[in-house]
Amino acid sequence: MDLEVKGVAASPASQAQAISGREKPLQQGWTSKSWGVEDPCLPVVPRLDLGSLVDSDDEEQDVIPNNLPAPTDKYKLNYQQYKTEVKEGHKQYSQRNAEKTKPQITHQQTPRKKIDEKCVQGAEADADDLTTLDRKALLQQGYADNPPIAQRGTRRSDAEIVAAEKKKQTVTEQVMTDHLSRAVISDPEQNVTTEKQSAHILPDSKMAPLRGRKRTLHETKIKTRSTLTENMLSHKVQFDGRVVSRNGHDACRELVGFFFTHDQSLTIYEYRQFGKNRTNVLPFIQKNIYCHQRGRRKGKQYQLGDFYVGANLTFLSSDHPGLPGSIKENTLLTLRITNVDQIALHSLNCRTDSVEHDDITNQEANDRLVFKAIQDVLREQLHKRGVRIVTRLGKYLRQVDKEGNGLLNKADFKQALEVFDLEVSENDFESLWLILNDNDNDNGKVDYGEFKRAIIGEMNEYRKSFVRKAFMKLDFNKTGSVSMIDIKKCYCAKKHPQVISDLRCNQGTSFSRNGASHIMNIRHFTEEEIKSSFLETLKDACSKSEEVSYGEFEDYYEGLSIGIVDDEDFVHILRTPWGI
Q1: What global pTM score does this model have?
Q2: Which of 337, 281, 334 is nearest to 307 (CA)?
Q3: Where is this region: Disordered (predicted)?
């Protein structure tokens, strides 16, 4: 095939001549310059000008064909729906941003609020008491600056709702099976033969009463005093719960309980999932009538009004021999209710007249007011340094607990407050101690986890559920602790605003969702820096440098939660780097 360069035809003969002419100077050791002088008649290929290779409007018009078919109605409809969703999401984000900006602006008038609104990146003057660890921990709040994608969040929430309904149905079916068939079969009363019945039993008669004969499994349709019916079991309230424990394996157990109003009894089951399709439901607390073991209602029987989100259910570990060994090490088992079937609860409240203890209710309300007064003061002090103080306080209390039972005396707690500069008045501390030290069996000692929750507070159960999800994703072996290597592998900082907003950083000032302006052109953090800052602050909270327990992981996000007002912002901070 003939080639043509600048109007000069290149025939096969000329090509062969050019090749032979090129081989000759190479054999004689000539340079390319001398070769060009020797044969000046050879065609010269012009230099390619890269600057001229710029797309123009004329070229684009020539490239794009004009006979494209018109878009279909289905495509137009999808485009309009997408456009509407984007506009609606931006509108909602703008409204939320405006609502959050107003209170922040009003609070900026006080010197304390001006200090709290300082830039995390250290661009402004250091007029507050933030340390390097505090600033690195506050970088995690940056995940909330980018609003989540509405469509992806909706799809994920729908999947979670379906999984929760499937879990609820599985556990309910197992409970009905256990108490309608297995309980009847295993009832000892069926094997009891009274003297009156035995007198009428003939030795060789096949017509002997059913209780006097040797029965097989399919012949046990006998009613006893403990026999339940489906109608009786239908009057129930279902609730989800978790174990309040420092043991990570126990704290992440998925518990589902039922309170039956016909006899004021309750039962709790543990839901286990192996992979995606295999599940198992086993009894955790046997069905029986139980009473409170701690607090103002100690010795009182559980009633319908005791079941609400955030309520504690206490049991004696010695009454349940089937509990795991790690739980039986403690005298009391404390369960926290995380979710309640509100529809069933409202329906049963309308049918039954629940007896309320007015005196106890008033005392509990006063206790909550004491807790809230102390928590408001301390949370104001921990607004920007919550991660460092909460994690180090937990680490300090674990070191002081030489016996390892989680109990400390009053002097230990006072010393801890002084070490971390947490200011609590003497009257408030004494009121707090009288409320917590209600168990004479502890010899004047209080569980330090309970003390820490009382003075600082804790995140709500909605936030804590996502903390458990993130930890369970890391702890796939369910050991209760995770290595730093696994955390480093799973943590992803690609979607952090500091990583994906290079253009906005170069422009100067950007505004976060809490309304505070940040000078972004002075310091920009890369993906590796965001990850290393997280690992450094988390490692500071750990007793072991290369291992993180569930309690330490929860303390980290407990401190981070103090400075975040909106629940969805906190959930987005967990969803984005952990992919949950």
Answers
A1: 0.66
A2: 337
A3: 1-35, 93-115
